[in-house]
Amino acid sequence: MTAPSPALTEKQKALHGELYHAFSPELIRERARCFHACTRYNNAGEVPRRRLIELWRDVVGDASPLPRRAPTDEEDEALFEDEPWVQAPVTIDYGTNVKLGSNVYINANCTLIDTCLVSIGSRTLIGPNVSFYSGTHPLDPALRNGTRGPELGKEIHIGEDCWIGGNAIFLPGVVVGKGATVGAGSVVTRDVPAFHVVAGNPARILRRIETKMDPEHHSGRTERPTSTAVDTMAMLARQLDLEDGDRTDDPFNPDKQ
Question: Can you give the pTM of this predicted structure?
Answer without folding.
Answer: 0.83
